[in-house]
Batch of 4 targets.
Target 1
Amino acid sequence: MRNRTEQSFHPSSFHELSSRFRNSLFPEARQFYESIPEGLRDQYERGLYRVQRGGFFIAQGFPNAKDFNETDLEHVVLGEERIKNSMETYPVLQKYINRADTQVAFGGHDSGETHLRINDVPPFGRTPREEIVKRLEPWAAHLVIAKIPNPRVREETLLLYDRYIENDPKDLEIQFARYTDRAQGTIDPARLVFKINGATREQRRKVTEHLWIMVARMVEPAINLITYLPTEEAREAVKEIVFTDLAELKKYGPMQVPETFEKGFSKSA
């Protein structure tokens, strides 16, 4: 799987990302996406490409934060590639998790951010204005999805988006999509903005505090998956995915954070 640990942090071109987006989808998910008119798909992808992520890293003064470049479109592409890679590496998951629904839900989860009045909002530490904007995001997403002309495709897309927002712990597709969202935003930037070698004491403190929160958020949907997946084989597959991500984080960030979650996750799961 191509991810942030294997590529530079220079922003990818729109056309490269657009092509990778389609190639990252399973055939049934790609067929569903391509049932949307080409012009509307292009508008959506350009909306995602316009949204710049990582402002929180800069505001907090994280190491190398000004060198971090990632758009919402790249976030979606990297996440879809993660889903495809995980499902292909652990095919047992496809017995219980609808892979197309997972990809469609993940692909549309940031729909609201493409609205000019929304944009990217940090996951925590928000200003009062950002809290208001975040509450408006589902409204904006519904406006974006409402543009899809095919009634069936529009209704299914809206249903998956609403399922994502509702976040039922028993909804396996949504929990897998949510784990992907949080893992991509935590693990992929690690070698740049969470790299503590050469960082100041204050930067190390901020990175450590950030990761305690972010890794806790990341493993939450994974624990839900392990709780509600019906077989030990499927549950072990999820554990392997999480441990692989935590091992990647240990290469760059403060060791005590991923090591603590490895121990705690093993016991609770």
Target 2
Amino acid sequence: MASSLEIIHRKAGPNARGLRKNDWFERQRAPMIRTGQLGRKTNFLLLFASFGIGNGSLFLAQSWLLLHGELGLIGLFGTYFAMATLATLLVDWGGLVLLARSTLATKGDEGLSAAFWDLTVVRLLVALLVVAGVLFWVLPSPGGFAEAYLAAAAPAVLVGALNAGGILDGLHRSGATGATTMVPMLLSAAALPFVPDASALHQGYVLGAAYSVGAVLSVGLQHLMVAREGRRLGFSRPTAAGLRRAAFDGGMLSLTLLPGQFLYRGQVAISISLLGAEATGVFVYAKQIVQALSQVPQFARRAEFPYLVGLVQGQARLGEMIRIQWVSLGLSAGLAVLMIALGLGSTVLDDENLAFAGRILAAFGPASFAIGLFSAMVQVFSASGRLVWPATVLLLVVPAGLLLTIPCVMWIGVYGLAVTEFGINVVGFAMMLAAWKSART
């Protein structure tokens, strides 16, 4: 099945106007060289600042609750806020990539509107399934925090189907996308200090409603920003072919997210079964630091994606497509070195648990760089519209890696988790590199 990008490229590729391939490629690349670096830096800084402000506000609010002994509320909110954000991510259905690619591939509003509404109809169906599942769970249950929060946050899932973040990414405004996505975090953080004295039911309703209001504001701001960029998303009647393409491509992109979710949860399950609760607690603490640091190159990757699509359209070589991601790869390498240095440095601390966490952090340094390499190849495939391979590779290497984790943890303890995660990403990178080369020969 040809993707929308492949169809557009065949119709308006480098040879369509009698241009030589290299001439066309240089014309596409020249604006990126002149303006791309500043744009990428600005978008990266905005994404990083949005991440810091949004998560920082939640951290401060939860710290306030901790000082007031509200450990139960922290645990409940953290659990169901994570569920709401995961549902929102699922309902996006790969929109950050698909809509960015469509924005870059189409010059007029008609083609972009068609891509948006094809994907939106699919996303609404996914959102309805998610909300129906939530209501099926909530309605028969007695009223408590979980039921109230999920019911009040359900509108956010439906509104999320209309988000235009991918279009902003395609317009080289990924920093603006990041700024809008922190709104639900800010409102949730603002609501937390006002609910400790309320009943569990009212706590859930207030915090869930704060998330939903934040989602409405976030999506509304995205559409306003798209309009300010001169793009108009008028209604376009979805077509059967467009719906099939959106469902398939979005499903493949969503499948690249799920294995990562299962990997971490599988690691925790293996750790607690083989190593016990205390060692697992230290592992979770260290892994949270790894995951937070790993967000930094991800921001750079978001900013690099539109330029990577331009190279794909110009039929650039793989080396060019890897080199244009030098910022995210450099950050991955730098953070890997930082993790190793911080981890080894913490071994001199008097606190045994902190020193243990430091050793685990150091062990995950090489894995962090391997994740960067694998993610760079995933982004190349995503930019080219070849979405089956990343999903297939992840579905193969993650379960196999988890199976190998068991004997590895039995052999070298908690460090086996880092070794197998490194192996998963190296093998995944090698498989995708081989697939790309075989397709080009």
Target 3
Amino acid sequence: MLTWTQREGVKGRWVPGFVLLPFCRFAQEAAPQWVTTTAVIVILVAAAVVAFIIYERRIRGFERLAEKLGLKFHEHGRGGAGIPNESFLARSGWFAAAGRTRLQLEGMLDGFRVSVFEYYRVSDETKGTTRGYPVSVFTADMRGLPLPAFLLRPEGIRLKLAQAFGGADIDFLEGNSARFSARYALTSDDETGMRSVFGGELRRFLGERPGWIVEVVEDRLLCYRPPKIFRFLRHTPKRVSRLVKDSREILRLLNAACAKKS
């Protein structure tokens, strides 16, 4: 038993109704039919109200975060937010290439045009239901920087698909790189360029923070983590704040490495 709640502009929420079954069965045996029906309606309405309140608090949280960062907030997103069709994200199987965005922050940050959003795909256009696992994504426009295309991913994640992007796994044997090389696989057609871009500070930063996927495709930087299976662990203001903080540091270190190359 599942209950469905929906309001304009908000994707439907499934409320686990199985938690109500013991109560419903007891009520059916111990009370008249109208009492049982009324009780179930009251519980379902209460669940819908709670879901609405939680969503509204989430929206207010994103509005405060956008104001703090000096970015604009779009509740319903703005298209695909420039996700390249050839990116690992678009081709990973988590999404179709024409994914959708929502709960999006965008604007100028540290001199770059950035966008942060929840990325998902729609399986039913009429109902607006989602398919696959939504993922929080940070993107930045890197045009003008001498940054080769690359894909950095956790070791072992979708290895065969990643190899299709070209290039062998680039290992670093320098003193502080053991943790980085053990946790990540870096592929690119420009190994020399990658060795100059991924300096010791960047390798140390990522080595201490496992689980990132970072890629540059068509002059766009994408930073994200594999999507969460449990929906309650997804795109929230607190998690997005941490995503932006770490992604800004990755962006800063990449920019500094490019400045040294110039």
Target 4
Amino acid sequence: MTDVQALRDARAARKAELRAKRDEQEARDLEAIDALEVEHGDDSIDASLRVKAWRAGLPFMLAARRANPNEVKRYQARVRPNKQGDAPDTAAAAIEAGKSCMVYPPRDSELRSELETLGDGIFAALGVAAINLASVEAEAEGKE
């Protein structure tokens, strides 16, 4: 018979250690993102995305900057049906915007390389966030 309490204790200890490592990474992420918000402006950065399947070596927090007008036009062109009426690849458009607008983790960093092992979904979410930031700015300026 296995000692259930010993297993529970070992599991709790493992999870506490993982939580402590994640908290350390979150602190590093917050420091870097705060500097980006100071540089670009708080309203120009979306840092609301978190890596759900976090593990050591990955960032916990992600940040995208507001898409610039050219990036918005490119995104909008890619999400429209073509002249033949074929459905657009909206996921590819969002991924492209996300990879272009992601500011944390920075391009060419080890954290970013590790993040890319998770697939493109995270970049799609960042792309949508970047386009949304641009939309909010356009609405505020009365351009939409």
